[in-house]
Each structure stands twice: as structure tokens, then as C-alpha cells.
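Researcher: Go.
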Amino acid sequence: MPRPKGYSINAAPSDESGDSEPLIENDAVPPQCCSARLNLAVLMFFGFSVVYGLRVNLSVAMVAMVNTTDSTPGQNHSTVHACPLPPGTENSSDPFPQPDSVPQYPWNSETQGWLLGAFFFGYLCTQIPGGYLSGHYGGSIFLGLGVLGTAVLTLLTPLAAQMGSYWLFALRVLEGLGEGVTFPAMMAMWARWAPPMERSRLMTLSGSGANFGAFLALPLTGYICQTLGWPSVFYLCGGAGCLWGIFWFLFVADDPRTHRRISKEERDYIINSIGPQGTGHGWSLPLLPMLLSVPLWAIIITQMCSNWSYYTLLTSLPTYMDNVLHFDLKSNGFLSSLPYLGAWLFSTLSGVVADSLIEKKVFSVTNVRKIFTLTGSLPSAGFLIAVSYAGCSHILAVTFLTLSTTIGGTSASGVFINQIDIAPRYAGFLLGITNTFGTIPGVVAPIVTGYFTEDHTLAGWRKVFWVAAGINITGALVYTIFGSGKIQPWAVTEEERTEAEKQRSRSIST
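Model: Structure:
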């Protein structure tokens, strides 16, 4: 029986079949190769690569920015090394020398923790407004300006550090304000651009730029710090963000209806497969039903728990490599980046597999999201616990850290794109909400890590890894019990519900 024109996975459920998850049939689907939707995913991929490069560069540069030869007033004891120093470095007064003209600062562990967490204070504030405005106006302007503004501010990092830690803290907060709109804007754009059968692969491809950016930025930052001095890191990263902004504003449109280079076949396919949910949500929102939505709270709690371990490693892994394992700065950056290479590959692959399972009706959308969330969370937590007992074994520590983050990448096709399943029209706003809560660990985790590891002992780092693993497991269990991939009743307007009923009636009559 042929589908009526415009039928989509986002069609409103009827009262008697509210638990069903309708699937579109795979008729004449325009190829993805060289398509406008794939080009958008690739541009987003590079955009988020830049975003995460701008975010994590301070994590590695911090090792070079801090003058470890200056003693903090009141500290009369010598530094205790958790693991033995490599041969030939025991008497080295400064393991990361900088050019004579490059300043270094006497920031203690607590100050470094606050500086590494400062970004997320700003990042928290613009998630929800960014998602709301992107859902109403379209996300391209907000994503583009978010990356470009952060890049410009990054250029000012050496000046802010020279003026003092408080100025650098304030600058990082402003950078967080700029980046806060980027992920909600991405989700709002995919609500208009991603056909339901391609959601997982398109969104994981674009979002995996974050892991790829971390993979590139961590070793390059270490190399640049030792060869050109740490200020060059921020000049080069900021320049890359400005360059990306030019391409973004030249080639991107908010909606397939307004894209200047899209084919008619692809435009009709996207619009018909998404249906009426692929439009802006207007100014009004069903706030009370959202507040009472159990599937939405499942996403919120799970993302908070998962992000704790992610942000712990993202901001503190270079410090662990330096203070505990004593890798030199170049090796530090490279080894810190290995987990994100694996996460990039696994998240991209998981999107293809998830779409295939949904398209072939092997599992429902709900089960696919839960399976990928569990497989990304439980083994990842297990390897984090293994790291805490790896001791001073460089090989074991790096192997377990890499496996933990690599396997964690499969969650990209689970809870992290679930907002667009339960409410496509409000996906940008919902991501703003979930990311706001999910960013809280980005503020708290580096500070907690700083307190746990103040004495640079293995016992302190063991607490860091155990806490991260336990929180991760808790989130996975919550999502398994309460998560859903079904479009929620509050996400459907009465007009859409009426139209869906008419279409079903016509289908039955024929």
C-alpha cells in the first residue's frame, strides 16, 4: 500500500496507537554523496572540531603556562611524585622550558582547576536561550556566530593571562557564553534537515567533530607549546575558527527550502520525510508538559552522569599524564588525544549501525537508543576503574583510558541524540535544557579533581576515576529504565494530530 504524500516518522500518533513508532518506507531516496545534507554535516564536523580545539587547548597549554619552579607561600615541603620520574629528569628544574620572552605563572592546583572549569560557567548560561532562538529563527546564524565569537576571544588569551588569573577566568567564561549556543543550534538545524532514517549517521558525523577536534588539538597544542611557546596555541586556534566562519556563512542555509544549491529531489525528500515537525516552533512552548516529561528527565540525568567522566578526562587528562605518568609535553598531548581518536571512529560508526537497525526494523527507536547508551556507558566505566589500578604502568594506563573513551563514543547514537526522537520541533530547545544540566559536571568535575589530586598521589587520582565510573553507571541505568524514543504527545499540535488522522483514514479506505 503506498504511503500518502508527506507521511513521515514524525506523524502524530493516534490515540489508539500512541505507543507505536511509525517508520517511513525507503522509496526514492536521493544519494547522500555530494548532497546538501551531507555537505552540512561535513561543515558542522569541522565547526565542532574547531569548537573543541578552542575548548581543550588550555588543558594542555596549562602545563606550559605554569611555572613549577616557583613555590607557593607557605609550602615548605618538597613535591612528592606519585610515580618515579623518567631517567635524566630527576634534577630538571623546568621540564617544559619556554622561550625567554614567554611568561609563566605560579598558579597552584586549585587555581588551575578553577581556570579549567571557568569555560563552563559561561557555557551554562546560553544553552537554553540559544536552543529557543535557534528553534524559532533557525540555527545557522547562532552556530556560526558562536564559533566565530569564541575564536576571536581565544586570540586574547595571552593578554588576559598576562593581566592575571582573574582576567583569564573572565575571558574563559565569555568564551563559554559564545560556545553555549552551538550544540542547541546544531540540533535545531537537524530537526529541519535530517530525514528520520538518516538522523543517527548525520548527527553523529557532525557531532563527532568534537572528538576529532580534541584528537587534533591535544597533540598539536603540546607540539606548538614546546616549539613556538604557549601563546602561539591560542593565536593559531583562534585563526582557524575565524577561517571556518567564512565558509560557514557562505555555504549554509537554515532550511532545505531556502538552500540555493540543493536539488529539487533532495529538497522534496527531506521535507516530505520530516513532515510538519521540520518547522519552527514559534514563540510559545509547552513548558509544563516538558517539565513533567519522564523521558526528558531520563535524558537530562543520563547526560549529566555521562558528561562527568567525559569532562573529567577532557580537562584533566593532560595534568594526569604530566603529574603522575611524567610524559613530556609532546608525548602528553599525543597520548591524551588517543582516546578521542577512538571515540571519533566509534561514534561515527555507531550512527551508521543505529540507522541500519532502525531502517531494517530490527529494533525500535527506543531500543536502539537504549542499547547504544548501555554499550557506551558500562564498559567505559569498567575501564575507568581499571585505570585507577594501573598504577605507574604507562602502557596499561594509556590502554585503559583509550578503551574507556573509545567505547564511550557509541553513546553518540543513544541518549545524546534522543531529543530529536521525542520532540523534533523542540529539539534545539530540549538540547539547550539537557546540555545546561549536562554542563554542570564541566564546572564541578575539574574543581573536584583539583581537590582530590592536590598532592599528586595515585590515591587521589583513584578517587577521581572511581567517582566518574560510578556516576556513569548510574546514568546508564536511569536511561535504561525511563528512556524512550517515541515522539511525545506534547510535541504534537492539534492541527498535526487532525491531519494525521485524516491521512490514516484515507490510507485505510484505499
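Model: The radius of gyration is 24 Å.
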